[in-house]
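Hello Y.,

Per our agreement to keep a running log of every chain we model this quarter, I'm adding this entry. I've kept the format consistent with earlier entries: sequence first, then predicted structure.
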Amino acid sequence: MATISVLSQNPPVTAPAEELPAWRRILIIVILLTGGIKSALAFTSVVPGLQLIAQEYGGAGGDAVLRAQFVVTLAPIGMALAGLMAGLIVSPTNLRGMMFASLAISTVAGLLQLVPMGYYPLLASRFVLGFSAVIADVAMTSILAAQFGGAFRSKLIGYRQAISSIGTVGTMLLAGALAQKYGWRAPGVMFVLPAIMLLVAFLVFDKPITLDRPAAGANDDGARFSIWQLWPLFLLSLLMSIGHTMPSFQMPFLLKDNGITSAVLVSRVPALSSAVSILAAFAFGFIYARLGAWTLVISATLMGLGFIGAGLAPSYELILFCVVIEGIGAGWTMPFFLNRVLDRVSPGARNQSIGMVQASLFLGHFLNPILTAPVRLNLGIHGTFITVGGALITVGVLIGAWTLSTRGTRRAI
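Predicted structure for the entry above:
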């Protein structure tokens, strides 16, 4: 595939290749930057209907809340496993095939939500959905990372996160309206979106994708880290992900405890978090270029303050205000870890490093209901938000102290 170039003042980091027609180049960029929307659908298609899912699959004598949350978290389990295996499944020689196949599978698995089925078949379909969505993400992000570098890549990764958040807002609000009127299965119809994306991909990726070799002078020095030397980044992405999913996984039940049960009102909270994240993500390249590791310190602190406030807020309006504070920090989380890892590995390790970031992030999604369940049962849902918020602020303080103590040294974070 020819080198993708968007702005002449921001050339790609690869050697020159055959130029593509403008329309095809634009569509390729659109696909690469909008690919994250299908992963967001794995959450937004069911989150507004969590209370309805708990009613349908709660069972007798069981924890209905936890069973409903597992419908959401089986997708992150598949995502985490796909991330761990991405280095084996996705390679520079099969990017196009993996993208096509994974988009097709995620479309079918997502549409199965429309089909009445038992609890465990539903969980299985959610697992397949998550696995295929991340394989597609790794393939798309690998192309983007190979074509662009430096500050411009940071901007593109921020833009990609912002576009994903825009998709999250739109699909969350639509899912809330559909679930309110037609039941929690109805939002599954939104998986026609990856089907459309697949058709466009067939059109624009008409030839096998080959990643050009880095041009002379590209940033590939010997100071790179190995994948396993970056374990602090993967651990932090796991911890931040546990907090990142609070608005989607736990907020519906905090609102219910406050007497708010409307699926439309419930859907507005994670949608607002995503909307604020959009603005934060668009600014990520600017912030990251100036603050580096301190970007994560600020992100963790803002998320923690927002969750503590939500746990203490007595009204729906105050909860929305706290979600705004949380959303600013959340908008920098994914771009930070993805960009930080790509800055620190060699081009040959990109697929595996991207997969490891995806795995750690989505494993955090899976662990959220498991780790918060004991806190929720003992302290209540409000106490859970306060506890998670305090933990995030502690993480921010520790990262800040470590950054100061290792100033001027070669470090993974």
